[in-house]
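Quick one: co-fold with FE2/S2 (inorganic) cluster.
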Amino acid sequence: MNLDRLMGSPKSVRVIDVVKESDKTRTLKFRYPSDDTRFHSGQFMMIWVPGVDEIPMSVSYWNPPDAGVTVAPIGEATNALISLDVGQLIGVRGPFGTPFNTESKKALVVGGGIGMAPLRPLTYELLRLDVQVTLLIAARTKGELVYLNEFDSSTKTNLQLQTSTDDGSMGYKGLATEASKEILNGETPDTLYTCGPELMMFGLYELAKEHRIAFQASLERFMKCGCGICGTCALDPTGALVCVEGPVFRSDQLSKITEFGKYHRDSMGLKKQY
Ligand SMILES: Cc1cc2nc3c(=O)[nH]c(=O)nc-3n(C[C@H](O)[C@H](O)[C@H](O)COP(=O)(O)OP(=O)(O)OC[C@H]3O[C@@H](n4cnc5c(N)ncnc54)[C@H](O)[C@@H]3O)c2cc1C
Ligand code: FES
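Sure, here it is.
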């Protein structure tokens, strides 16, 4: 494989639209010339924020030739990215990583906060494939629920939309894991797809085991290269690289990853407990 392709064919692109998704998150759309690039739900891009840093971002919008990422401001790079206006330049390379497997007939999709980003194209793909989808959009409070306006159960017969908030300001009052437990008491999906805070995903992994349903989760780890060169995103003890083997992992893979739900590593490689 040539180096340019391995590195995800880096390109400079201009922001063409900025969409408010919730009180704090924004989707930045850009034109992505990608004749030879095929995106699959769950993959991510490395986004270069000029003068600041390069960070991994799930592709939340894919409508060739346009693509987009949804950003939650948590530190220097994400704050700088979300402050960009239409017309400003960013660097993009990718898409990278192993996507979700969409072989399902009845799916429960659970997104916690900004974890909804990779689940948005997944949900559209499942709906297009005529999969019966229950989508649970979860957040701490109503103002942090993302993509609420575009997923409407009344317009799509194979979609059932549910929401949950920790403070009860909208939908089920409580954690996404508790809301999922309620859903699974009345429904029997064959697959549970999730992305969000790792403790939430770990709880859902246990729940999926209990209900004997397939489970796929998109993990986040600190990344430098995004394409399998640096080893920064290796998981204990298997050494699986989140940027190559992941970010989407199945339950049989997660059962071997002892750090799942326990800890992750910071930019210095030091363990940070959840
Ligand atoms: C595959 C993948 C997809 C992602 N998709 C999205 C997305 O769609 N939207 C989005 O807003 N964010 C996404 N992220 C997270 C995003 O990359 C980080 O929030 C970003 O790198 C933080 O950079 P910063 O300079 O703003 O914050 P920093 O100043 O670097 O960090 C702020 C805090 O966040 C922690 N942190 C930073 N990066 C990570 C990480 N990867 N995992 C866990 N904790 C971290 C730091 O330890 C620190 O406590 C994704 C991450 C991965 C690995
Ligand atoms: S980020 Fe470099 S190997 Fe995964």
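If it helps, The radius of gyration is 18 Å.
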